[in-house]
Known about the structure:
The chain is an all-alpha fold. The protein has one domain (21-98). It is built from six helices and no strands. α4 (62-69) crosses α5 (73-79). The longest helix is centred in the middle third of the chain and has 15 residues, at 46-60. It is globular, with a radius of gyration of 20 Å. The N and C termini lie far apart (66 Å).
Amino acid sequence: MRKTAATRTARRAVRTTTYDVADYLNSPEDIAAYLEAWLTEAPDDATGIARALGDVARAKGMTQVAKDAGLSRESLYRALSPEGNPSFATVLKVAKALGVRLHVEAAT
């Protein structure tokens, strides 16, 4: 049986890389837009918002963010993991360490 071009193409392996949003959070504007999107699009998803804070913390350097927030690196990883449940005090400390402010407006 003769191989056609379509058969040869179908057997080629596709190379993929792992996508990590932290690789793209390079400026304060990128970080603010990312967090604002989470707060706007999924305001009831506490786990997702905590994970988004974790993404930003990884982008800025988890060790430095933990130090600036007055937390251990391990506790910060735990709090911002998908299984974590950070206290509001932790969220405020992390936001301050990241150089962002939470924004409140009237719901419409």
